[in-house]
Amino acid sequence: NISVDTVLFGVNAELDSLSLVSLVVEVESEVNTKLGLDITLADERAMSRPVLPFTSVQTLRDYVLELSNHNAG
User: Fold this and answer.
1) Are 3 and 60 in contact (CB under 8 A)?
2) Can you tell me the distance from the alpha carbon of 47 to that of 31, in angstroms, rounded to the nearest whole number?
3) What is the distance between the alpha carbons of residues 6 and 35, in angstroms, rounded to a whole number?
4) Is 4:58 a contact under the CB 8 Å cutoff?
5) What's the Cα-to-Cα distance from 2 to each of 13, 16, 56, 58, rounded to whole Å?
6) Quick check: helix, strand or coil at residue 7?
7) Whole-prediction pTM
8) Which of 52, 62, 67, 70 could make an S-S bridge to 39, C-beta 3.0–4.6 Å?
9) Which tens digit of pLDDT belongs to each residue from 61-73?
10) What Cα–Cα distance (Å) separates residue 7 from each residue in 14, 20, 53?
11) Nearest 5°: CA angle at 37, between 31 and 39?
């Protein structure tokens, strides 16, 4: 059962590292295809945050929305 609280990275993560990379690539691709936005989720900006965007479904969703809003406007 996946929810916004599902841990993606770190202790008790639901995904292994390869699955996480695949998810990141898939999300970037879907945002590009469906919204026409070219975003990069795994970059220095993401990695320098106190809480990584890949920590949970919630943090990933929030980061995607943040980047999408920034790139759309």
Assistant:
1) no
2) 20
3) 25
4) yes
5) 12, 15, 10, 11
6) strand
7) 0.89
8) 67
9) 999 999 999 887 6
10) 6, 11, 11
11) 75
